[in-house]
């Protein structure tokens, strides 16, 4: 378990936010891409009082809580595995996500305790610009709830089955569907959890209907043209196991 020394702890707003972002990326991965592995590690029969840790290098770990009293850093929720078998999987993951959001904030403001008022406000503003782990895990604002964006994005990806003229028309429809920032500005990437940006290419999974930055799943617009049915890494892994 990673225990940073006081001298190596982040001190500036930027350093604390970088630490927060890394830990957040780690737990988001545990609860999305690595969710099957995470679920197995949380077997309530094998171990008690397990915690989900996220680290600044964007990795995660399920482990027993720290032995130190008081601990070097605020500890994650204790015993996340207890309720695993007594709840629906999605509900349990949502519960873990909520507790994880609380832990991430507590660590960030533990480091930020010595910041002044304006610095703390800026730190929270940076954190608040990112979707919460809960929002990412539950897809609280999923793309499929936005018909105009769904049809536009699907049209762009389906240009592989149309003529050049139709492709141009669909591409234009895709771009126009994002003009209303209030309606589409909170679309979340299923990989990194980042918000939609008009200057980035996105692609939708035809299986789970989540959306991703092309760069996050290593798909370029040109490559998307040749794909008849796109499956995200998570769905591809699940299909290969069946």
Notes on the structure:
With 242 residues, the protein is mostly helical. It is built from 10 helices and 4 strands. A two-stranded antiparallel ribbon has the order 1-2. It has a two-stranded antiparallel ribbon with strand order 3-4. A hairpin with a 6-residue loop joins strand 3 and strand 4 (211-213). Helix 1 (13-31) packs antiparallel against helix 3 (89-111), helix 1 runs parallel beside helix 4 (117-128) and helix 6 (147-157) packs antiparallel against helix 7 (164-176). The radius of gyration is 20 Å and the shape is flat. The two termini are 34 Å apart. Residues 1-7 and 142-184 have low confidence and may be disordered.
Number of strands: 4
Distance between the termini: 34 Å
The largest sheet has its strands arranged as 1-2
Sum up the overall morphology in one term: flat
**Beta-strand level of the residues, as a percent range?**
5-15%
Overall pLDDT confidence: 78
Assembly type of the chains comes to single chain
Report the structural category.
Answer: mainly alpha
Q: What composes the largest sheet? A: 2 strands, antiparallel
Number of helices, counting only DSSP H or I runs of 4 residues or more: 10
The string of secondary-structure elements, in order, is: HHEEHHHHHHEEHH
Report low-confidence residues grouped into runs of 5 or more: 1-7, 142-184
Radius of gyration: 20 Å
The helicity comes to 40-55%
